[in-house]
Amino acid sequence: MSVAENLARIQKQIVISALKAGRNPASVRLIAVTKNVSAARAMESVAAGVADLGENRVQELCNKYPAVAGARWHMIGHLQSNKVKYIIGKVTLVHSLDRWSLALEINRRSQEAGLVTPVLVQVNVAGESTKFGLPVDEVTDFVTEAAGLPGVSIQGLMTIAPLVENPEEVRPVFRRLKQMAEGLKEIPGVKMEQLSMGMTNDFQVAVEEGSTMVRIGTAIFGSRH
Ligand SMILES: *Cc1c(COP(=O)(O)O)cnc(C)c1O
C-alpha cells in the first residue's frame, strides 16, 4: 500500500470513529509520525494532504525540518532540556512537557526568542514505570504553576497508552485523560482544547474518547526497523 492509500484508509477510520461518538470528524487532526522515515517519504505524506508531522527526536526533526517544506512540526517524544534551544520557533506544538525543569527551559528559550511556545502536558495515565509523563496526582499543581510562565502556552494534555493487543483495554486511559482535561479548564491562563492521544494500535478508540490529535506512524509508513 502506498502512503497515500494508507492515509486515505486512516482518514476514513477517523471519520467513522468520530461519527460513532457524535463528534465532528474535522475536530481530529492527523499527525504523521515520521521517525525513522526518510525526508522523501515524509514529503510523500505532505503531498497526499498531511499538514502535520511529528518526530520524537530533536536531531531527526532538525534534519528533516528544512527538507520538508510546508509542514507543521510537532515534538512528540521525550525532550532533553539541553536540546530545547534547537526546536524553539520550529515546532508548532511540544506534546511532551513532563517536568518543571523542562517548562522553565522552554519558557526561557521562548522568551529569549520573543515567542510563546504552545505545549501539551504529558500524563502517565496508566502509571507505567517505563513511560515518561507526569503522574496523574501531580498534574493539577503542575499545570497551575506552568500557566504562570509567559513563554509557555498550555493547550491541553497528551498521553501514550500501554501497548495492548485489544485497544478496548486502553479505553479507560483515554477516558481518564479527557476527564482530567475537563477538570483543568478552570485554571486561569490554561487552554484545554487539545487531547493528543491515539497511535496506530489504538487511535480509533482514542477518537471515540475525544482525541483531537492522533499520532500515527506505522499505519502510514509501514513498520520501522
Ligand atoms: C512512534 C510514536 C508514535 C507513533 O506510533 P505508531 O505506533 O507507529 O503509530 C506516536 N507517539 C509517539 C510519542 C511516538 O514516539
From TrEMBL:
The modification N6-(pyridoxal phosphate)lysine is found at residue 35. Residues 25-224 form the Alanine racemase N-terminal domain. Pfam families: Ala_racemase_N (PF01168). Keywords: Pyridoxal phosphate. The keyword tRNA processing does not apply. CDD domains: PLPDE_III_YBL036c_like. The keyword Nucleus does not apply. Its cofactor is pyridoxal 5'-phosphate. It comes from the Bacteria. InterPro entries: Ala_racemase_N (IPR001608), PLP-binding_barrel (IPR029066), PyrdxlP_homeostasis (IPR011078). GO terms for molecular function: pyridoxal phosphate binding. Pyridoxal 5'-phosphate (PLP)-binding protein, which is involved in PLP homeostasis. Belongs to the pyridoxal phosphate-binding protein YggS/PROSC family. This is Pyridoxal phosphate homeostasis protein.
